[in-house]
Amino acid sequence: MAEILADAVAVINGRTGSLVTTIPVNPAPFGIAVNPSTNTVYVTSGNGMVAVIDGRTRTVTATILATGGAVAVNPRTNTVYVAGGPNQGQVSVINGQTNTVTTTIPVGQIPAGVAVNPGTNTVMVANEEDSTVSVINGRTNTVAGTIPVSAGSVNVAVNPSTNTAYVTNGLFQGKVSVLTPCPS
Fold this sequence. Notes:
Elements: E1 8-12, E2 19-24, E3 29-35, E4 40-45, E5 49-54, E6 59-65, E7 70-74, E8 79-83, E9 90-95, E10 100-106, E11 111-117, E12 122-127, E13 132-137, E14 142-148, E15 153-159, E16 164-169, E17 175-179
Antiparallel strand pairs: 1-2, 3-4, 4-5, 5-6, 7-8, 8-9, 9-10, 11-12, 12-13, 13-14, 15-16, 16-17
């Protein structure tokens, strides 16, 4: 068994379940997302950097200053969204072609989760502190609306086939908010 390094991304063969290699990244890696269209992996870290990994060569090709933990990708637009860490209240928008932050979007308090519906070009951000979901229009990179949900929204996932968003709500609440169809 190979040793898995700290501050690294483990690459696992999906067919065999075996470790292929590890890729060193920034300290305290946290969030990870893949753009299947470009075979690019984005890894957020505790030092406010996003590592960009070429999935073919398994090497870090760039690092981007974008504070946050949660990360999501719209493969249709090659856009990456990084939800700001504690007390940040923003989402950084990264152009996947140039690996640069093009804008930041103010959202609710302590954005903890982010998901993208590529079909509607809508980004959903779960804001933990104010128990809301910010709905971002991906074409204009502006907040199109804010939806109240149960206390402590910490994560969000979107089913693009049904345009439904699922939001986990708070520690020990045992609730999931369902937003269907989610705003676009």
